[in-house]
Amino acid sequence: MPGRFRPWYPHFDPYVQSEPPAQRVADRRHEGTTPMAPTTRPVPPRGARTIAFFNQKGGTAKTTSTLNVAAALAERGRRVLAMDLDPQASLTMATGVDIAALGVSVYDLLLDEDLRVADVVVPTTIPGVQLVPSHPDLAAAELELLNVLERERQLDYRLRAADLSPYDYVLIDAPPALNVLSVNILVAVGELVVPIEPHPLSLMVLRRLFDTIGRVRRLNPALRVLGFLPTKVHHSSRLAADMLAALADEFPDLPLLPSVPLSVKGAESVAERTSILQYMPRSGVAAAYRDVGAWIEARGPATAADPHPASAIDAATPTTPASLREEVPIHV
Predict the structure, then answer these.
(1) CATH number reported for the structural domain that contains residue 59 in this entry
(2) Of 141, 85, 132, 137, nearest to 111 (Cα)?
(3) What is the pTM of this model?
(4) Domain containing 181: what range?
């Protein structure tokens, strides 16, 4: 069965960019004044685990999962900082933050080297969870970053310069795209969770995802994939069971996290600007996200003394098909 879900995709390189259209050339007025990367990299603070919920395909419940896993970890007594890196700002709105009232957002954080993470953090409606909010202006960040030295490391620099000691986890909601923002996330984080809907189209786009991870790994050798998080799972569906079986066959060394069932309750909780754990704490979806939080906790971060941690697959050596491990030069 897995052989049916291996379509060919054209070469993709998130760093190869064409010259902006004439009407956008004026936007390059920042040239010569855009923030430059620091000449030395600060020693990263220890303690906080940085985990991104990452999948370039839309509709896989990345935002919902970031929101509810953050709530589940906070419920377990952990201190969580969520970061919204999606220009749609869905996580920001879902946590009760008024976008119109924001003075600064993650857009400003990426483009202003004098701004610190602590300057952008805002409270949320979820106890134990704080947020670095997003804003629709973030959609322009890719163009703005064109003239920035080492543009793919800007998030990494900000996190390394930040004091993350107040937090146990930094959870990042990634955009449904493979662009400069996505590459910034891959360079900055230590671990990835890949939310995936058990649908044929979800399996078809995985090659592009792992191609990108393979290339970025040279900029972030410690990057590893914790596993796949099945979302919107209809447990009585034969298709869902077949897709999960195909996923396990295709990636035998990448574990499947506890499945999150398909339910309208998750959307209802977002409409109420809170998590499913607060909105309907005894629901099956809330129980599933508690299981995901416990799963992540049980599989702690990798250490130098533990080259093959039980917590996750070392992203440097995934046993995926050779076609998915193809390396392509990065052009910066």
Answers:
(1) 3.40.50.300
(2) 141
(3) 0.78
(4) 46-315
